[in-house]
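[retry 2/3] adenylate kinase: previous attempt timed out, resubmitting with same input.
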Amino acid sequence: MADLSDVAATDLFSELLRRLKCMPKSQKRLILVGPPGCGKGTQSPILKEQHCLCHLATGDMLRAAVAAQTPLGLMAKQTMEKGQLVSDDLVIGIIDEAIQKPSCKKGFILDGFPRTVAQAEKLDAMLSKQGVKVDKVLNFEIPDSVLEERITGRWVHPPSGRSYHTKFAPPKVPGRDDVTGEPLIQRKDDTAEVLKSRLDGFHKQTKPVIDYYTTKGVVVRLQAEKPPQEVTVAISKTL
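[retry 2/3] adenylate kinase: success.
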């Protein structure tokens, strides 16, 4: 049993309140699918809070497993140090490990996985062994032209992480952070050329995955170009 003697009372009380609030919630296992800039990052924290789910981003999970030096993490580290891609089976194993944790008791949000039908089949097989399945696949549909406007207009203040948009959330002084007055930068990935390449890859990979889950009747199509509040309401209605 974990030693809780050094954990702050406020932290223990907060966690107790969270668990009490989550007790009546029904279990949900969700997959979020959408291109860069579609709004998944906005909706994930809301879903996590409302439904007491854990948020599983495979990249973050791999890094956490490596840092924690778990058996699967050590295997992943060896693979990555050789410059090789981590196998689907290894990623599934890390997901399997993660969803056993208490924070995932009510279910999970999978973001960035599965990217192929083979991965989807392996994920379903793993969940089936536990007697559960994917409940909903939220497909964030949005025209590529809207994404280009969203992404190429983004500017950030690296030291703080504050972000701006030339159209939707412009800084008070063009090119300058509102708080410090320091210069803003545009990330290398936030260009039309890089976006086009990423979108081409996304569409080729994702369509078969959406088709796969459509046959299972779990895909929900979201009009992700709408304002975030409207997308949140649409998701709530489907869940």
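[retry 2/3] adenylate kinase: The first helix runs from residue 9 to 22.
[retry 2/3] clearing retry counter.
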